[in-house]
Amino acid sequence: MLDYKLLAALAAVVEQAGFERAAQVLGLSQSAVSQRIKLLEARVGQPVLVRALPPVPTEIGRRLLNHVQQVRLLERDIQAQVPGLDEGGPPERLRIALNADSLATWWAQAVGGFCTEQGLLLELLVEDQDVGLKRMRAGEVAACVCGSERPVAGARALLLGSMRYRALASPGFIARYFPRGVTAAELAQAPAIVFGPDDLLQHRYLSALGVEGGFAYHLCPSSEGFVRLAEAGLGWGLMPELQVQEELAAGRLCELLPERPLDVPLYWHHWRSGGELLGALTQHLQRHAAAGLVAAKR
What range(s) does the HTH lysR-type domain occupy (predicted)? Predict the structure, then answer.
C-alpha cells in the first residue's frame, strides 16, 4: 500500500528543486522531509532521487511522480463530487509545461475562460517547444505543450496546430548586413538571436536554406526581450507571427525572406488517467487553441 505522505514529500522536493523549499511548502522541517524520502526509498528498495542540485528523480522516482500527478487530478474530481471530502486547504495548482512563445501569444486567450469557470489555478513551467516533454517524463507536470508528436508512456498527444514564425530584423540591421539583399550565406554570417541553448529554430531555418554549421548569436531567454533586441538592431531572429503584428505594421521590424516562413507544429500532451478536469481542459484546447494557430499539415 502506497503512503501518500511519502509520495507528497518526493513530489515537493522535485517540484521545489530542493529539500529546504519542499520543507517550507509541506510545513515540515528539512530533516523530516529527508526522513520521508529515506523511508520511501527503504520501502521501494532503491533510490528515488539523485542527490544533485537540483535533486533529480531516478527511473522509479519518475514513475512515482507520474502516479502522484494523476492521483492529484483524480482527487480533485472526487472532491467536486463529494464536497465533504475537501479538507479546506488551498487548491492544487495544475502544473503545465509550455514554450515561452505560446505563453506570450495564444495560450492565455485559449485557456482563460476555462480556468475562470472551473476555478482552476495553473503553475506554468516555461520550456522550449523541443524539450518540454522531459518535464512530463520526469513526472513534474500533468500536461505540456511541445513540438514532439510521440507521447510518453501513459499519455496521449493531440495536435493543436502550428505556430508560424517569420525571420525578422530591424531596418537598420538589414541595411548594415544585407545592402544587396538577403541571401542564405549572408544570413549565416550576420548575428542572430536565439532564445536559449535548447532553441534550435534558427539552426533549423538555416539548414532548410542549405546552410550548415555554426553561426554567431545572442542568447535571450525572454520572448518580449527577443523582440526588443531585434528592434534595437542586435540581430535577426525567428519570431511568432502572432507576436509582432504591431512591429511589422510600424516598420520597426521587417521580413528577411517573406516567402520562407517556418511552421512549428504544437502538440498537447496529457495523462490518459488524468481525470475529468484534464479531459475537459483537453477538449477546451481542441476547440479554442486553433484560433491562435495555423492549421498544421499532417
Answer: 2-58
**pLDDT per position as a tens digit, 216-270:** 999 999 999 999 999 999 999 999 999 999 999 999 999 999 999 999 999 999 9
What the block records as the C-alpha cell of 254 is 521587417
Positive or negative torsion for Cα 252, 296, 187, 200: positive
Give the per-residue pLDDT at 209.
95
Domain-ending residue, one of 92, 111, 127: 92
Range(s) of the domain holding residue 58: 1-92
Whether residue 281 is contained in a domain is answered as: no
- The CATH number of the domain holding residue 229 is 3.40.190.10
Give the C-alpha distances (Å, rounded to integers) separating 181 from 186, 187, 237.
9, 10, 17
How many independent structural domains does the chain possess? 2
- 91 pLDDT above the threshold of 70: no
